[in-house]
Amino acid sequence: MYPQSDMVSILKSIPWFLDLKSEILARLSRICCIREVCAGEELFVEGGKDDYLYIVMEGQFSLDILVPNCGRMQVYTADLLDIVGWSSLTPVVRQRTSSARAVVDTKVLAIDAPGLLQLCNEDDHLGYMVMRRIANTTASRLLNTRIQLLTRLARYTNRPELPQPDFE
């Protein structure tokens, strides 16, 4: 367990939080912890519910989804300072849209999502900053996933000897 002063230092090292006031950083540090994930271990699974947002501090995660009739498909590799688990902050989804498995031993900053949402509701600047970054992350991942799916679909349609996936 890290002392709160160390957690504030960790938060200050993350570009997301550079422009936050000391008071907000101190409050944020109380809802954070560092979690270590061994290579091959899953941080969360698609469809599961998890109340944490994660920022990769060291290591790497493979994010994958289950594609019907095709199996698991990697859609993203999360590296240093990437956000994983953003769906914990979306009130409509509130379940994981992918699975995250550590590629190597990995360390993440785990932020309690209900606590973060409460802080966002109490501080408009923090709320705007967090939601803007979550929106950018979501849009980026959606674009990346779309490109990968279209690329795979094009491969299947150009090779009739392969079984055609059923995406319906």
Descriptive overview:
By secondary structure, the chain is α+β, with helices and mostly antiparallel strands. The protein has a single domain (32-157), classed as Jelly Rolls (Sandwich), CATH 2.60.120. Strand 4 and strand 5 form a beta hairpin. It is globular and about 60 Å long. The chain is built from four helices and eight strands, in the order H-H-E-E-E-E-E-E-E-E-H-H. Helix 1 (4-12) packs across helix 2 (22-29). The strands form two sheets. Strands 1-8-3-6 form a four-stranded antiparallel beta sheet. A four-stranded antiparallel beta sheet has the order 2-7-4-5, with helices on one face. The chain has helices at residues 4-12, 22-29, 113-122, 124-157; strands at residues 32-37, 42-44, 52-58, 61-67, 71-78, 83-84, 99-102, 106-112.
| Text of the CATH class | Mainly Beta
- Structural class call reads alpha+beta
Q: Termini, distance in Å?
A: 46 Å
Major sheet strand order: 1-8-3-6
- Overall pLDDT score: 87
**Run of helices and strands:** HHEEEEEEEEHH
Which stretches are low in confidence, meaning pLDDT under 50 for 5 or more residues running?
none
Q: Please describe the biggest sheet, giving its number of strands, its sense, and whether it closes into a barrel.
A: 4 strands, antiparallel
- How big a fraction of the residues is strand? 25-35%
Portion in helices? 25-40%
- CATH homologous superfamily name? Jelly Rolls
Rg (C-alpha, Å): 18 Å
* Structure summary, number of beta strands: 8
Q: How does CATH name the architecture?
A: Sandwich
Domain module tally: 1
